[in-house]
Amino acid sequence: MSAKTLRYLIVIGLIALWELLPRTGLIPELFLPSLSSTLIAGWTDAAEYGHALAVTLYEVVVSMAFACGGGILLGAIVGSLPRPRVLIMPMVSSLYAVPLVILYPVFTVWLGIGSESKIAFASIYGFLPTMLATAAGIQTIDPQLLLAARSMGATLSQRLIRVIIPAAIPTVLSGLRVGGALVIVGVVVSEMLISSAGIGYLISRYRTILDSPHVFAGVLLVLFLAIAFNAAIRWIERKAAIWQTGTRAGQANDDIASSAMQPAT
Fold first, then answer.
1. How far apart are CA 182 and CA 190, in angstroms?
2. 84: which of 76, 122, 202, 263 lies 20 to 30 Å off by Cα?
């Protein structure tokens, strides 16, 4: 039995247990409603969930642009320059160990309870791991690549775009995966704490009235959002792997051709 088939069987088994355990009374439906009742609740109020999902998606996309884009850029700069790396990295590592959720009330005071505070909180929540992973990946780059770029007169921006970030793609994508997942968590958690819109708000609202099917319908939407993000990162990883393999093959062919053109001694 292949690993893929085994994964499918596990998923099917979990779905069956989700439906059967509440139906048989082994688990109270207040704690875990059946899958069918959860799907019916989501379908009945599909318009409400669709509007909430649109709000959450907007906040997630904007937060990822700030967190992942800024984290990759600043991580590449800090990781490629020794002095900023020594000064900034210890502080960022220490800040990453702090539970940042305690800062969300501060953002609500500064920015209100609208999308702005959620975007700011989720951006910082996902920025730190993305920056740390990118900076760590930059330090693993072959110094000969950077030396060759400098000797050819490449500026810092050219080295970042053409040498540093492409060479650190695997580590950058790993940081992007962690940072993006934390952005989703940050948006949903902030919506659950203080909000009037979004999937997190719906989960929190239905939780207060003990409407478990609607709560788990919101949980399913968050789960599908995380799965879709992970699938997108996997697609980017496959494309990056093909690009890197092609680049290495092309470089190897160039080296062989150069060797063949050299006169024999």
1. 12
2. 122
Residues whose CB is less than 8 angstroms from the CB of residue 225 and which lie 6 or more positions away in sequence, other chains included: 53, 56, 57, 60, 184, 199
Read off the amino acid at residue 41.
Answer: A
- Distance separating alpha carbons of residues 180 and 126, to the nearest angstrom: 6
Contact (Cβ atoms closer than 8 angstroms) between residue 38 and residue 217: yes
Q: Which residues contact 252 (CB under 8 A, 6 or more apart)?
A: none
CA-based nearest residue to 216, from 90, 76, 45: 45
Give the distance from CA 194 to its chain's centroid.
23
How many residues does the structure list for the chain?
A: 265
> Which of 87, 181, 91, 89 has the alpha carbon at shortest distance from 136?
89
d(CA 55, CA 77): 33
Each residue of 161-190: b (16+ CB within 10 Å) or e?
eebbbbbbbebbbbbbbbbbbbbbbbbbbb
Instruction: Band the pLDDT of 154: cuts 50, 70, 90.
Output: confident
Residues 56-111: pLDDT tens digits? 999 999 988 888 888 888 887 777 777 777 777 777 777 767 777 777 777 787 88
Distance CA 45, CA 213 (A): 11
d(CA 222, CA 218): 6
Per the model's pLDDT, the better-predicted residue between 207 and 135 turns out to be: 207
Residue 54 confidence (pLDDT): 92
Handedness of CA 167, 84, 90, 119 (dihedral sign): negative
Would you state the structure tokens that stand for residue 1, as one six-digit string? 């039995």
Q: For the residues 190-202, what does the mean pLDDT come to? A: 85
Q: From CA 165, how far away is CA 156, in angstroms rounded?
A: 12
**Span 221-248, average pLDDT:** 76
